[in-house]
Amino acid sequence: MHRILDRPLALLGAVVTASLISVSPLAAQCLISGPSVICSGSARLCVPEGNWVAEWIGPSGFSSTDLCITVSEPGTYTVYLYDLTTGGGEMCEHTLSLGTPPTASIIGPSSACTGASAELCGPDGNFDFAWTFPGGGTANSRCVAATVGGSYALTLTDRATGCVSEPALHDLAFASCDTTPPPPPPPPPGSSVACPRTASFWSAQCREANSTKRKITGERMTSIGLCIDEHASAFAWAGPSAGLCDALKHGSRPKLRARTVRQFAAVVANVCAAEMGMTVNGAPIGVDAGQALSVAGAPATVGEWLSQADGQLMALAGRDLDEPGVVDAYRAVLRAAWLINHGDGLVASCPTPAPVANGRSGGGMDDVTILEPDDRSLSAALDETESALRLERPTPNPFRMLTHIAYTLDTDRPSPVRIVVHDLAGRAVRVLTDGVQAPGSYELSWDGRADDGRVMPGGVYFVHASTGSRLLQSRLTLLR
Fold this sequence. Notes:
The chain contains eight helices and 26 strands. It has helices spanning 199-207, 218-231, 240-248, 256-275, 302-316, 326-341, 373-376, 378-382, and strands at 10-11, 14-15, 23-28, 37-38, 43-46, 52-58, 62-64, 68-71, 75-83, 89-98, 111-113, 118-121, 127-132, 138-139, 143-146, 150-158, 168-175, 279-280, 283-284, 389-391, 403-409, 415-423, 428-437, 440-446, 459-467, 470-478.
């Protein structure tokens, strides 16, 4: 066959004049089948079956008369098709681009405690994930919970181009961890060892007014109330003993403001007890005002913190909790007071008997103390379920391709966080994150796809964010 590219072709030796063949340029990829992106190796391009004579030209002088060609160089490939039945002709073009394989990476710890799990995650993006675990296990989610030691491998497939990454490797080792807490550091020179009592202990002295188990007499409680009046201006009570006991009540007033006042009153009671040289069962109780503090953001000593917190509580007393910053200010005072009362915020403190299942201590100085909810844990005192997790409105919203979801975890320690996109029927569509996270601010993205990579239809979806028993929800709209 003789090929003439700038005029009609002589078909298999039979010359067809220009008046018999009409060559019309068509849109790109008009009749050619095959990929548009080549990552490595070669690509197969074909014209449809028919009574054709094909003339291909391409980059670097490529030419062929086959109906299907195998090529490996990116560029534009043009085919001239001549219909041997009708004598007509068409021209089609197909552009083949060179794709870039993604780079796989694994984020996560290199060691963990035996019996625990470690979260390993691949990069965020429009990828399909292929994990291989030690022993032959596999997974296709972005993050996995690793429970055995060995080498973990992750391969990414770019959903847009189909390009596959080289595998990323991550070695993880498990070892036995010593969970015994280290002994407290010795007190600095000139600092006395503190023996604070909890707010529940001081409250019990009010409840046990007619009991032989009461550790501190009514007269001493009155003396402590008078001492508190001298140290703090935040309290205004007619009778020092009754006023102190009212401030220490918990059950009837479980709100944040009352919890803060309760813990603050217990700090001042501990300071006064130390000043008065009080003892329980022959052992001293209380906290010296000069005791060094180890609370982040607090002054250097208990006395300095007490003066500062007293002023803060007076300033907050008339403000609404809905005002910006008020809740955070109360929680800052409450957090420091709780740590002082439990000895955790002090440089040196006496060991405190551990409570048993019924809420009473296991015998010792506090054997009549029933721990109220806010004394059982710092998170209970702060009522972390009110604001530990703050979920921002997704932006943009509505969106077509990608929306960003920001949130803040405001706790004292790492906490479990789960954020999932649900459809209108309540079905989980995409798990954006699910694991223990350190306190801080984070941002996630959702590309409108399900966990299995399916493109979700346009409509209304809900972002559910949870930590513990607290569930937050935000509505967003996907446009298609």
